[in-house]
Design a protein that fits this description.
The chain is α+β, with helices and mostly antiparallel strands and 237 residues long. It has helices at residues 16-37, 45-56, 61-73, 103-116, 143-152, 176-186, 209-223; strands at residues 80-88, 92-100, 120-121, 131-140, 159-163, 166-172, 192-201, 205-206, 228-233, 235-236.
């Protein structure tokens, strides 16, 4: 799989307004995760990982606590997941994951981003078959020990990389819980640099010049939408 998963650029919080957007996206995702799987991070592995990731991205504790309190209350917004696929500038392939309380509005907003850069939004499944939906873990450790622990836990490892002691493991997204538990049990005090479920492109599309600039604008437009949580693509530039 190579290091293709790194092609997704995170939204960098350069201004207070951008920070607020990042906090809002984390708050919404933590709320949905807690509401669906329980508010106790010890019993909800996905929630615990989400909170850990939020802390790494310097999301304040009060934002996290507010999302958990809202989930405890049982009321609040009713968010649903929505996924849109299509072709971006330069025939790149793009997947947009959203959390929305108004799917019609979200679809219109995402389609508008495609239209502004003369890109084409597609139907469900139009490009996702060209991506692997993978659980990805990156950490400092030993490759053989890592692989043994994962195999013992019956994890279907699709790829493992070792770059100067930095191990990166790829597994099907359905094996996320098993893989994380196996690694956590095998290596006491393990700290994950990457602990995510992502869409990893099977092939990259090289773009440059004006096309690359147009693609950057496209990503900015999508990331400015409150409902957009993650954008995955196969652009390389």
């Amino acid at each position: 799989m190579g290091r293709a998963f790194q092609n997704r650029k995170e939204s960098m919080a350069k201004t207070s307004d951008q920070k607020a957007k990042v906090y809002s996206k984390y708050g919404r995702e933590i709320y949905v995760c807690a509401k669906s799987g329980g508010v106790d991070p010890n019993g909800n592995l996905a929630l615990r990982s989400m909170i850990d990731r939020a802390k790494k991205d310097q999301v304040p504790s009060h934002v996290i606590d507010k999302a958990l309190d809202k989930a405890k209350g049982g009321g609040g917004e009713d968010f649903d997941t929505a996924r849109y696929e299509g072709y971006g500038p330069g025939s790149t392939m793009v997947i947009v994951d959203c959390l929305s309380d108004n799917p019609n509005r979200t679809f219109g907003d995402v389609r508008s981003c495609f239209n502004k850069v003369k890109a084409k939004i597609g139907t469900q499944g139009s490009v996702s078959h060209m991506f692997d939906h993978s659980a990805i873990f990156s950490f400092s450790g030993d490759e053989e020990e890592s692989l043994e622990a994962l195999m013992m836990a019956d994890v279907d490892v699709t790829d493992i990389e070792n770059e100067e002691g930095k191990i990166t493991v790829f597994a099907p997204h359905t094996d996320y819980g098993k893989a994380k538990s196996a690694l956590t049990d095998a290596f006491e005090g393990i700290e994950f640099d990457v602990d995510e479920i992502q869409f990893v492109p099977q092939n990259m599309t090289q773009i440059d010049g004006e096309t690359a600039e147009q693609f950057e604008r496209f990503l900015d437009l999508l990331n400015d939408l409150d409902d957009v949580q993650n954008v995955y693509h196969n652009a390389e530039y």
